[in-house]
Write a structure and sequence with these properties.
single chain, 118 residues, alpha+beta, YefM-like fold, 2 domains, three-stranded mixed sheet, 63% helix
């Protein structure tokens, strides 16, 4: 996420000055937090902290866990594809074939060989 996107996300949240935290006390601040689930505490109009309700925090943690699970599934699929390709190198005669292919000159004609077929 870019800094601009982060800044926009913070700008969209309700704000309270740090002086209100002192004036209203924790209960007063938490009343404001309960209205939207989150509250930006500012110091001289600059964001200094974001206070989240427990429910909001839990939702963020669950979203991160879900995203992490998708990443793990993608990584596992990639690992399986790699292992499948690696099996070909362990087949009988694979070493000899690899040496022949490595010694053979290749004419690329200005193109690059890449992708699943190579």
């Amino acid at each position: 996420m870019s800094f601009a996107a982060k800044s926009d996300a913070i700008d969209a949240l309700p704000k309270t000055p740090a002086s209100d935290v002192k004036k209203l006390g924790w209960r007063g601040v938490m009343r404001d937090v309960q209205k939207s689930g989150r509250l930006v505490v500012t110091n001289h109009d600059a964001p200094e902290a974001v206070i989240l309700s427990a429910r909001e925090y839990e939702a963020i943690v669950q979203a991160l866990d879900k995203a992490r699970g998708r990443d793990q599934a993608t990584l596992e699929a990639l690992r399986e594809r790699f292992d499948e390709r690696l099996k070909a190198l362990k087949a009988p005669g694979a070493a000899a074939k690899l040496l022949v292919a490595a010694k053979k000159p290749v004419k690329l004609h200005g193109k690059v060989k890449a992708g699943g077929s190579y």
